[in-house]
Amino acid sequence: MRRNGKKYKTSYKEFVFKSFQEKVGFQFSNEALLQQAFTHSSYVNEHRRKPYEDNERLEFLGDAVLELTVSQYLFQKYATMTEGELTKLRAAIVCEPSLVGFANDLDFGELILLGKGEEMTGGRSRPALLADVFEAFVGALYLDQGLEAVVKFLERTVFPKINDGAFSHVMDYKSQLQELIQRDGAGALEYKILQEKGPAHNREFISVVCLNGNELGKGSGRSKKEAEQHAAEQALKKLKEQQ
């Protein structure tokens, strides 16, 4: 293994993976799975005489496990979200840029086993490669310790970012408001249509959103849904100004 122009023995590699396990709080029963999760195909191609296996199959498994665990979390957390809204939010969480961010938070790039050519061309920081490694690690953790361990890992690395609003930009105003209220435990939201006016072909609705009976925002629109969105938008602005 070559790091910063120096060659290290296998013992250094073992030390790095041991330190990593201490960092993430999981001790693998099968450490070969852990090493495989960080083994790029370019490394395998340069070490054909040794029984190395790349992480592509683990990546495939980890992708499915990640979608399942994130889906379950979102389903339980956002009881009022529609199927379409949940799908959009999940897509933002498991997309490549997000996975790269999760991987960088844990310095995954330092552990990847690369071939010399891939190393020289910046593979250690390549977004697609880092995203693949994160999925492969999830797959390896699932095989070694089961779904519960994966959930615990995500509770430390991914779910807090969801709770902190890192993905609120892909949520509509009603969902963002619901997230904010749930996070602060402030109470229950209620939407009401105050008025309908205009002819049938040019209808206008006026909606208000209340928190524990107190008005937070008011909005209008050509449909009830649009009016509620504008009411939630005004409520969000009001709450952010108060912070």
Description:
It is a single chain. By secondary structure, the chain is mainly alpha-helical. The protein folds into two domains: about 1-170, Ribonuclease III domain (Ribonuclease iii, N-terminal Endonuclease Domain, Chain A, Orthogonal Bundle), CATH 1.10.1520; about 175-240, Double Stranded RNA Binding Domain (2-Layer Sandwich). Helices cover about 60% and strands about 10% of the residues. It is built from twelve helices and five strands. The protein has helices at about 10-25, 30-35, 40-45, 55-75, 85-95, 95-105, 115-120, 125-145, 145-155, 160-165, 175-185, 225-240, and strands spanning about 1-5, 5, 190-195, 205-210, 215-220. The chain has a three-stranded antiparallel β-sheet with strand order 3-4-5, covered by helices on one side. Strand 3 and strand 4 (about 205-210) form a beta hairpin. The protein is elongated. The chain starts with a strand and ends with a helix. The model is unreliable at about 5-10 (pLDDT under 50).
